[in-house]
Design goal:
CATH superfamily: YjbQ-like
Distance between the termini: 39 Å
Helix content: 10-25%
Radius of gyration: 20 Å
Strand order of the largest sheet: 1-8-3-5-6
Oligomer: single chain
Number of helices: 4
């Protein structure tokens, strides 16, 4: 008995010719430890690419910083997160032997490992599909200001 052919979705039927992709690198200077919002820059870039539906991938190119999607309405949320991580991964813990780059370096690596270095964000309606109170942040885990780079890849139609 023959099985009926599978139905192809409308998106698949259009083929790959409608798919476009873009790459970009965002640069920022942090003020030291804490969350640094990059939502406005990311949204502007995505909208400028003209992709209505797709997927955005962001990747921080460092081992002592990370990326978060977090509430952007109340700054106390960011301060609470910092207090929590300070308790969870304290500086000066005798467990850490890697201290050649300073007492904040190994805790920064652990914080980065506990959070995320890459984010995948759906794109809908021409922009990142973020919730009302969601913002995109680079989370700097070192005490001193640093120059950070975030690679972006966007594809869709």
């Amino acid at each position: 008995m023959r099985t009926p052919p599978r139905r192809r979705s409308a998106a698949r039927a259009r083929g790959r010719c409608g798919i476009r992709q873009f790459v970009h690198e965002f640069g920022l200077r942090t003020r030291g430890r804490g969350l640094h919002e990059i939502t406005a820059e990311v949204v502007a870039w995505v909208r400028g690419c003209g992709i209505a539906e797709g997927l955005l991938t962001l990747h921080v190119r460092h081992t002592s910083a990370s990326l978060l999607i977090q509430e952007n309405a109340d700054p106390e949320v960011r301060r609470d997160l910092e207090r929590f991580f300070s308790r969870l991964v304290p500086q000066g813990d005798p467990l850490f032997r890697h201290t050649s780059e300073g007492p904040d370096d190994m805790p920064a690596h652990v914080r980065s490992a506990l959070t995320a270095t890459s984010l995948s964000i759906p794109v809908a309606g021409g922009g990142p599909a973020l919730g009302t109170w969601q913002g995109i942040y680079v989370y700097e885990h070192r005490d001193a200001p640093h120059r950070r780079r975030v690679a972006a890849h966007l594809f869709g139609s």
